[in-house]
Amino acid sequence: MLPEGFFREALNLNFPELVRVLGESIYGPDLTGVDLTDVDRAVMIHLDRTVADLPRLVSGEARDAINLLLMQADLANIKTVLRGRALGWSADEIKGHLGGGILPRGLHSSMVEASDAASLAQVISLADHLLATALREAAKAGKELFEIELSLDCSFYKSALRTAQELDQAFLVTFVCFEIDASNLSTGVKLSTIGFEGPAERFFLKGGHLVGLSLFRRLADGEVAALQELSDTDFGRLAEARDLPALERGLHCALLAKAREGAKDVLGAGLAIDYIERKEWEAARIRLLARRAYYNLPPASIEQDVFCQ
C-alpha cells in the first residue's frame, strides 16, 4: 500500500512531478511513460498483479469468496463503459477508468468498443459472466441507462448475498448486506435528484440490515433529512449529507471503514475484503490526482474525494 503521506504530497504536485514521485513508488515498475494514459495503464497493471491475481493464490471456498468480491469491480466496469459511451468518451478515456475484476483484461478493449448495452452483454458473455444475462435482458427491455444500472445491481447483490450465505462466511455476509444498504441509500437519493415519478419500491434491494423500505421511500420523495435516522449506525457520517455528491463521498468512506473491520477476520474473507477495497480506492485516488495535475485544476476541487475524514 502507498503511505498516506504520498497522497498529501501528490495533491499539490504538477503532472511531471506526480509522474516522477509515482515512478519512485510501488507503481514504478509498471510506469513505462510520462502521459496520463501511461499512469492509467500502470494503475491497471498494478491492480491486475496485486488484486485480480488473488484467486490464483487460493482454492475452494476461499477462491469463491474472492471471486465474489472481484465481481463487484466487474459491475463497476460495466457501468463505467455504459456511462462513458453515453457521455461520448473515447475508448482510451473509458479504459482509463476501469478497475480490476474477474473479467480478463484482454476483454476490456472489446468492452469499450461496444456500441450499446446489448453489444456489451455479448462481449461479457464470452467469459460466461453472471451479469451478461441481466444486461442482455435489460437491453431487450429498452430501459434507460439508470434503470439498466439498477437492474444490474439487483442481479448482482441478489446473487452475491446468496453466495455469501452458502459459503457460511459471517463477515462476508455482513459486508454484502452493508453494501446493499449503501446501494439503497444511493438509489433513493438519485431517484429524488432526477425527479423520478412512479413506484420507487421497485428499485429497492432486499437483504440490507439498516435501510428499510420506509426510509428508502422518504429519500426517493426528497426527504434527505431522513438520513438523520442513521446517525447512531455505521452510516452515521451520512447524517448531515444533503445532496448526492456528499452522500456518495460519505458512502465510499463508510464502506472503507466497514471493510477495515474485516482485517480481524484473518481466517475468513474479511482480510481479503479490507485489502481489495483499500487497493481499489488507492487506484481511484491516483487517477483523480493524475487528472487534477494533468488538467491543472485546483487541489481543493478533488480534496474531498481523495481523503476520508
What this model shows, in words?
The mean pLDDT is 92. The protein contains 14 helices and no strands. It has a domain of 97 residues: V-type ATP synthase subunit C domain (V-type ATP synthase subunit C fold), CATH 1.20.1690.10. The protein is an all-alpha fold and 309 residues long. The chain is globular. Helix 9 runs antiparallel to helix 10 and helix 10 runs parallel beside helix 11. Helix content is 63%, strand content 0%.
The count of DSSP E runs of length 2 or more, i.e. the number of strands, is: 0
* CATH architecture classification name of the domain at 170-266: Up-down Bundle
Fraction in beta strands: under 5%
Shape estimate: globular
What's the rounded overall pLDDT mean? Answer: 92
Helix/strand/pairing class, anyone? mainly alpha
Q: What do we call the CATH topology of the domain at 170-266?
A: V-type ATP synthase subunit C fold
Q: Give me the strand/helix succession.
A: HHHHHHHHHHHHHH
CATH level-1 class of the domain at 170-266 = Mainly Alpha
State the low-pLDDT regions, or none: none
Helix content: 55-70%
- Profile the largest sheet: none
Distance between termini? 19 Å
What is the fourth-level CATH superfamily of the domain at 170-266? Answer: V-type ATP synthase subunit C domain
Number of helices: 14
Radius of gyration, taken over Cα atoms and rounded to an integer in Å? 19 Å
Secondary-structure topology with pairs:
Blueprint: H1 4-10, H2 15-23, H3 36-52, H4 60-87, H5 91-95, H6 108-113, H7 117-125, H8 130-140, H9 145-167, H10 170-193, H11 213-220, H12 244-260, H13 270-294, H14 300-306
Helix pairs in contact: 3-13, 4-9, 7-8, 8-9, 9-10, 10-11, 10-12, 12-13, 13-14
